[in-house]
Specification:
By secondary structure, this protein is α/β, with parallel strands linked by helices. It has a four-stranded mixed β-sheet, with helices on one face. A four-stranded mixed β-sheet has the order 5-6-2-8, with no helix packed on it. The longest helix has about 30 residues. α4 crosses α5. It has two domains: about 260 residues, Vanadium-containing Chloroperoxidase, domain 1, CATH 1.20.144; about 100 residues, no CATH class. The protein is about 45% helix and about 20% strand. β5 and β6 form a beta hairpin. The radius of gyration is 25 Å and the shape is elongated.
């Protein structure tokens, strides 16, 4: 084996071992302190819920914050292909590929497709203590696959990925340090947005950085070893090889598009005011929104005020609508039909309804599931 490559393998093995050891040790201490819930308790309010997360710039980061990283992944893939035949850029080909692979494998496959789907950690807003219905699970505590997608944070990876520019240390230490600062700073902003929205714990963001770092180290030291390509000359590529490369790039671009499309943040709010007849003696809500998703408040209002928020992830052009209809029976029962509708594909969707009802109906309100 080439001594230089062997040296990279040894350095990579040591760094990866230390990296994972630090993350595991820190997580054990963090869980022991119950720090995740301590922090979330400072954010969530029984009265206002997760209202901080709806303010700017947090809402903007949730909806559009992943776009720069996705765009750069596209650009780096195309730059890698072009660099194979460019004497000027050939030495950077593995750097372009390193960023793309860290993004696709680390953020796309490991975090979003594997860990989030199968670790079964409920999000803060899904936990009983914070207005949800599921029991809290600590970081690295495996739950039921599909019962929560909190661990790790997918949005956060799209911020931390910019720290991979540290790979340019041999060329420009200031650029490497600047990229590291940008990645950590942007990743922290994305993480804060998700904390305030009740979507993730601090440990979820911590492990997003951990997975991205481990992926970067693995590709840098064990697979690509970019500095070893500095003196490589441009080689003529056969037509068959070109087609294979094009097909491979196309497959990666399709994968990125699918991951972006299915993990595209979705948010929709519906507000409805329902007039109540003076003859109404009882209110019956007939709805397809689960009972546990309703937050009912009896207050001094004359009308029924309904606020439904739907958030999650959806394919582009997907829509959410809310139909509300009323009917008063001769027995004085006012039936209110609340029908939540979705159009398109939603990998994940959470609906929460805040309902304000006149005090006179405090013991005269019932909820009935809407028949399929």
């Amino acid at each position: 084996m080439d001594p230089q490559r062997k040296r990279y393998y040894w350095i990579g093995a040591i760094l990866l071992t230390l990296w994972l050891a630090v993350w595991l040790t820190a997580t054990l201490v963090w869980n022991r302190l119950d720090a995740d819930r301590l922090i979330i308790r400072q954010i969530w309010s029984p009265e206002t819920g997760w209202s901080l997360g709806d303010a700017q710039p947090w809402r903007f980061l949730y909806e559009f914050g992943t776009i720069p990283a996705f765009a750069l992944t596209f650009i780096c893939l195309l730059a890698w292909y072009r660099s194979l035949q460019s004497p000027k850029w050939i030495r950077f080909r593995r750097y372009f590929l390193l960023y793309s692979l860290t993004s696709i494998v680390g953020a796309g496959l490991i975090v979003n497709a594997l860990l989030k789907e199968y670790t079964g950690r409920p999000r803060p807003r899904e936990v009983v203590e914070f207005g949800g219905n599921w029991e809290y699970r600590a970081a690295l505590e495996l739950g039921i696959p599909g019962q929560g997608q909190s661990f790790p944070c997918g949005h956060c990876t799209m911020g931390f990925i910019f720290a991979s520019g540290v790979m340019f240390w041999n060329y420009s230490p200031p650029v490497a340090i600047g990229s590291l600062a940008l990645g950590l700073g942007y990743g922290t902003l994305m993480s804060t947005a998700r904390f305030l929205q009740g979507a993730h714990y601090v440990s979820d963001a911590f492990w997003s950085l951990g997975v991205m770092g481990a992926t970067f180290i693995s590709f840098y030291f064990f697979v690509l070893q970019p500095p070893l390509s500095d003196s490589v000359l441009v080689r003529k590529i056969s037509k068959q090889t070109k087609w294979r490369l094009r097909i491979g790039i196309a497959a990666c671009l399709i994968l990125i598009t699918i991951l972006y499309s299915t993990r595209r943040p979705f948010f929709k709010e519906h507000q409805r005011i329902v007039s109540l007849s003076l003859e109404a003696q009882h209110i019956e809500l007939v709805t397809n929104v689960p009972a546990e998703n309703w937050d009912v408040e009896f207050t001094n209002v004359d009308h029924l005020i309904m606020d439904l928020q739907a958030n999650g992830f959806a394919f582009p052009a997907s829509q959410h609508d809310l139909d509300v209809g009323t009917e008063l029976s001769s027995e004085g029962i006012m039936q209110i039909l609340v029908n939540s509708k979705t159009f398109g594909y939603f990998p994940e969707l959470h609906e929460g309804v805040t309902l304000k009802v006149p005090v006179r109906f405090q013991h005269r309100l019932s909820l009935t599931p809407l028949p399929p």
